[in-house]
Amino acid sequence: MSARSTFAVWAGKITTKILKFSGSGGTSLPGKVVLKLCPDILGHLAKDMKVICVTGTNGKTTTCHVIRDMIEEKGSTVFCNDAGANMLGGVVSAFVNAAGWDGKVKTDYALLECDEAALRFIVEHFGELDVTAVVTNVFRDQLDRYGEVLTTVNKIRSGLEKLPNVKLILNADCSLTSSLSDVQHKEIHYFGINAPLYETASSDISDAVYCIHCKTKYKYHYHTFGHLGGFYCDNCGYERHTPDVALAKVLEWKDGSEVVEMDVFGNSVKAEVMLPGGYNLYNALAAVAVAHQIGLSDEQIVKVLGGLSTHFGRMEEVMLGDSKLHMVLVKNPAGFNEVLQFLIQQRPTGTIVFGLNDNFADGKDISWIYDVEFERLTEAAVGAEHFYFTGKRAYDMQLRLKYADFATDKFMVEKDYKTLITMLKQQGQETFLVLSYTCMLEFRDKLSEFVPLAKYAKE
Amino acid sequence: MSEKSLHICHLYYDILNLYGDNGNIRTMEKRLAWRGIGSEVSRVTFGPIDKDTDYDIIFIGGGQDFEQELLVKDLFEYKAEWLKEQIEKGTVFLAICGGYQMLGKYYEAADGTKVDFLGGINVYTTANDKRMIGNFVYEYTRDNGEKFPVVGFENHNGQTWLGEGVKPMGVIVKGYGNNGEDGTEGARYKNVFATYSHGPLLPKNARIADEILSIAYERKYGEKLPSLEHELEDAALDDIRQQLGC
User: Fold this and answer.
1) Tell me, which fold does domain B5-244 have in CATH?
2) Average pLDDT for chain B
3) Do A298 and A328 fall within a single domain?
């Protein structure tokens, strides 16, 4: 530990304290201060630790939560960055918070949620360290920021290339993700789902139609959702790798959980996964692959999956007077379609609120809402009494649902969160709120004036 | 549903679908259905085209660079002559972003290399190091002189330049448009509507949607398209215009 890095940690800690004292909640400033003083700080702080990086378009936060529980089940200690604080500054802040005044981090593991584009900056100074990198999937996300899906793949790739000893854990069902298998690595394992998840296959909108290697159209044995599934290329032979951790089948869909049969490195394992919605199964599988790698037994894995708290999966439940609110975050078409699948199973009778902002963190371009298959929900939501719309682009969202044949006489736009919350409280109904990122932050901020809320996306 | 129906071709539906382009198709289908008019959407991809099939509207969306090479190959192998004939005979086209560029003559990269495109309309595109991105507004003028605003989202590197015989689709009020320099946006030639506007374009710009549907409907049936309300469409349009200050 160099004197410079210790000094930088001090500076970061003092900045954090000042920010806390002054009541401003920014998490990126301390990181910036530290990096100014010691650009390779992460190399110093992570030196004697095991690092796990989780990146990919969807499911980073949930996957991290499950991995965290797995590590703790093993009896090891871990720190994580705050959900959403997944750029370089946020990761540095997390390390600084975890470090003592002696400039050392004493936990066994650093578990890092990494933005796809920020991964290469975060891992810059990890070099030869023992790093496990999990790539959950690659979907279209905020195209105005990344250009196209291949740009996202290449950004992740350039991060992984900085880690010659990396242990890779890749989604076998995602042709974009599993193409990363050719970067230099020490170990590689795959997770995937061996059969279609739903009776009706979702979406002819695919983010990967043509083979990433030879540009021939992929064929599929089956789809799970989006472009995920049993893909293969007739021309060059690129195909889904057999997963080491696989979901064989869903034995039972429950309200908020699924009973599943898995194949974990050759062992057949039955478990209840306490996460709502099929989209979370991939996240659970990724975490199981990590758990197996760090030495958990199958029994321990089953125990963790069955004990996950309901705050996971970014579905949050809050009682507002007599109204039960279910809040869920949506970021892109693939994630939104999965939330719709969840809503279809719920057959909602009360109110559904859709909130859409177009700030940078949501994506400035909102055209993606037309890639979301609201038409699949229309029939299942006929029993709902109200459809409310909020956020900066509430009127665009309202229009989207008109074109999906929802009953427009149940529509209402309310951009003022306080008025909206007051109304939801008076209704005393079960309410589902489906909100884009900054819309969620703003809404929760206002909601916390009505009811106590846990810190966002933390357990 | 009456027996009246428009046949829409969604060309390269599985490749050129980057910006919610299904929303444009959906809007055409719905705005016909709500008038009691049918529609059939044929989704056409790589390979030979059935030249005996008549389409009333051909829609081409935007895509990503990865597939461009494949697309151009297929275009010249199977579709170029057919598309040119369709344009000249007055079939209605709506082309967005990459689809718009593809109808033009060529794309010239920064190093001077040219990729030949269809050459169906007299425009060409040159590379630009600046990405033109954001919500934008332009003013569309109908043949009868009536003007109305169009709002969409643009996201392109290429600068498109209009040649003789091609009119712009509109005049930029806010944003970049064709090239960020001459104040024009999109292209109109015969019954071709081409624009950088996704968003997607048609849902909240119901007047453009109806303009396109009207021309196709009148061509086919020789009668006016019945009118249809667009209250929620205008609400979305007005709201974003207000946010953009124009």
Assistant:
1) Rossmann fold (3.40.50)
2) 94
3) no
